[in-house]
Structure prediction request, 407 residues.
Amino acid sequence: MALSDLQIQTLARDAVQRAAAGDFAGAEPLLAQVAEARPNSGQALHLLGQARLKLGRFAEAREPLERAAKFLPKEAAAQVNLAGCLSVLGDHAAALAALDRAQRLKPGDAAIAHNKGRALEALDRLDEAEHAYNEALSIDHRLMPSLSARAYLLAARGDWMGALADLDMALTNRPNDPHLRLRRGELLLRQGDWLRGLSDYEARLELPGERYTPDLPRWQGEALTGRLLIYPEQADVESDAAIRDTLMLARGVDAAVDAVVQCAPRLADWLDMPAVQRGTALDGFAAAAPLRSLPHLLGWTLDSLPSSAALRLKAEPSSRVGWFAEGAPPPGIDIERNPERLATCRRVVGDDNWPTHLAARLGIPTIILLPTTGDWMWGPQRGASPWYPSIEVLAADDAELASRLGS
Prediction:
């Protein structure tokens, strides 16, 4: 049965009132009725698409928003909302086309220019994306999303100073933003600037995520009347990252306080230091600190790293080369891939994973292959590393690796 004009007006009024009150679930079916009754009404289609966007029903929002954009060719908002929906659905090329139309209708809009940058970045058109962010910032030089986005692009191409300048500007508006502080800290740390970077890096602990935190006060470096628990912050204590961090960072604390490391069972057997397993009662512990916070809490630098604790496990080298890297080994080398036999290798090559760290801790001559975006803890320099006397840090694509393994 067709709706009368009065019924349509009543439905539309009720829907708008519900949407204004934030009741999009109640507004959406009313708007759907209005759009069905008036299929050529751009405004009705636009409102229906917006309600579905608010409800997170992006696939269902696409069709009314596309129709609304056609019926409202002179309304920039219709193009912008369509672009936002398309971006979430992963159709970045179509989103960019909608934003181009919006920009022609509303030139000089910083938000539209920024969103074009996001679409171009998703399409891997990075130079054009940077140009779009530049345009947005020329309109509003404090536009935080564009400052942050451009900082990522500049950092990716090695323009550390430009990236840091953008992050510093963004932080003048939002000085306590943990995402911005963490990003700035990581950039500083990758350059080897631990003095300024370590405090910002602590912002990671303010961000939500699957991070393990024991039910103890967080240690801030103060004197304690009980034991200190140091622990890997990864949710899975058996993961490669958790074991790797424990091997690399469980050092130096026992000289300052009565510290116990919480770790995977296999590590408790290897480490010659007090250890407990995750899930053990924490009676007698006064505070806890994640392993990755120790450089900040104890004032470490790459030039003043404490020595690592001894291992109960001992090396018994043979003629084999341990290979624990994703890439293929050079031909003609007797390779060992089983981590359980790592201690029998005369040399080890690996990515930044726990077998490589264990080999280095055992004193086996070790080569670690790092990508350009490797963990900041290694520092910016390649070659010998202060973390382990027996390790050499090489770029992942080092052309001389085969010749080094022959020695």
Q: What stands out?
A: The chain has three domains: 5-204, 211-312, 321-405.
